[in-house]
Amino acid sequence: MTPPALPTAPQSVPQPAPGGTALHPLTARERVAAQLPPLGNPLTESDGHPLLFVTVSGAHLYGFPSRDSDVDLRGVHLLPVDDLVGLRAPEETHSRMWVRDEVEWDLVTHDLRKFVRMLLRRNGYVLEQLLSPLVVGSSPTHAELVALSPKVLTRHHAHHYRGFARTQWRLWEKTGELKPLLYTFRVLLTGVHLMRSHQVLAHLPTLVEEVPEAPREELLHLVAVKEEAEKGPAVGLDPERALRQVEALHQVLDDAERDSTLPQLPSGHEELHELLVRVRS
User: Which pTM does this prediction carry?
Assistant: First the structure.
């Protein structure tokens, strides 16, 4: 399936609201953008419903794409009111895949209401999509969501990243592939950085510079290894040493959560509710 040809729009990052917001550093955006294949024309609809934003997620956002990596696009669409108030259960998640210039593209979008609910459930994955510095398409609603993002940040996001790391580590033990091992380190470092800085940073090569406890040289070596193959093994890795490093980072995350000044609960419920009602009206 090929995407519709639509007017092009430059990659852009929503501007931070007064007082700042949880955006990636510009250096991360520049480093990730250099690794992307050409985006071409951005999509503006998902199964006939308007898109509010589309960003790049996955390995390109995380800073360890392979030469054969696909491109993961994530975003939010807007269902009409009739789809939400009738008897039929709405299809709140849409997905499609296509190939352009021998690169596979994967687009997954959620309806705005579902996306906001996931944000309020302290889902770090959708938070990273919202704040991705690689923006394929945006809108005023996207900018409003970005501006409200500091109000959904809590200490409990540490639980999301801790659980994600454990799942990926089990996958690494089962498969021996490098990708889940890099995910394990990436999410632990993202959680530590969030607890300390109140910023969402998903780009591993930048995280190893920002988090002093990161095993910098080993991780940069593994990132370089993964460039050659999406599902390759962890060449030159000492598994016992990796286990000790992961266990140490779990403790760092525990300590960072304990010492964090982030709130226990999100504070943006009412503003996000009002945004939902206004956009849907």
Answer: 0.84
* Residues 40 and 65 grouped into a single domain: yes
One DSSP character per residue, the chain reads: --PPP--------PPPPTT--SPPPHHHHHHHHTTSPP--SPP-EETTEEEEEEEEEHHHHHT---TT--EEEEEEE---HHHHHSSSPP--EEEEEEEETTEEEEEEEEEHHHHHHHHHTT-HHHHHHHT-S-EEE--HHHHHHHHHGGGG--TTHHHHHHHHHHHHHHHHHHH-BHHHHHHHHHHHHHHHHHHHHS-----HHHHHHH-TTS-HHHHHHHHHHHTT-TT-B-TT--HHHHHHHHHHHHHHHHHHHHH--S-SS---HHHHHHHHHHHH-
The residue to which tokens 């199964």 are assigned: 47
Q: What is the pLDDT of residues 10-32, one digit of tens each?
A: 333 333 332 323 333 334 445 45
Residue 43 contacts residue 54 (beta carbons within 8 Å): yes
pLDDT tens readout for residues 98-108:
887 778 889 99
Range of the domain at 38: 26-152
Residue type, 28: A
In a shared domain, residues 34 and 146: yes
Q: Judge residue 278's burial from the number of C-beta atoms within 10 Å of its C-beta, 0-12 exposed, 13-18 middle, 19 or more buried.
A: exposed
The residues, any chain, with a CB within 8 Å of residue 224's CB and separated by 6 or more, are: none
